[in-house]
């Protein structure tokens, strides 16, 4: 028997900068590691920086970072986070919409974009702009939620306009003039189980995503729990490239020289 539940109200993008958890923390590390495999230093654009977790990690690893987000709440939160960490000398944060991104051509050595394109009405225009600001030979690393057929109340709550399949993401990148180095499904089976049995029930039954998000954020910051979740999610790497299952797609592409 299916237990009825009331879906949480739709979240306004940028209204919950603390809404993070173990999955978010792992994804941040995954994107940074994927970038490091191709580029160990340089000027990186964090496109849609959110609360600044990826920006902070990249700065700690020695990259110069320019971070942008369309949400003023996120920009303020990211700035405060970076100031507390003492990283502001090597990071610049500003409010910009990726659909009208205003930087010179070839301004960056790399672009990272974690779970952002699905929020945008014009994801194709935004991707072309991101490709344009890459220098020739520059690297883009991005993640998006996978499986258009899985689009449901959780996507609507999070403000997602779509989910992606492998073919659609490949076309998006190629049509933006990028050459794909890696395109894989990720997040199976452990992350998929986490989403199904922890994240979704928590959001659905509380009806208060902010409260659940804060709880998950506290758990993620508690070292023993964060270590356990991280180890479980790392097991998923065994299945990457071998399955079409997973919660998301991870891509790395280059602007041709």
Layout of secondary structure:
Elements: H1 22-36, E1 43-47, H2 53-60, E2 64-69, H3 72-85, E3 91-95, E4 108-114, H4 123-132, E5 134-145, H5 153-158, H6 166-175, E6 179-186, H7 190-206, H8 209-221, H9 223-235, E7 248-254
Parallel strand pairs: 1-2, 1-4, 2-3, 4-5
Antiparallel strand pairs: 5-7, 6-7
Helix pairs in contact: 1-2, 1-9, 7-8
In summary, what is this structure?
The chain has 257 residues and is of the alpha/beta class. It is 41% helix and 19% strand.
The name of the CATH topology is Rossmann fold
Query: What letter string, H or E per element, gives the SSE order?
Result: HEHEHEEHEHHEHHHE
CATH class: Alpha Beta
Number of strands: 7
Q: Residue share in helices?
A: 40-55%
Oligomer kind: single chain
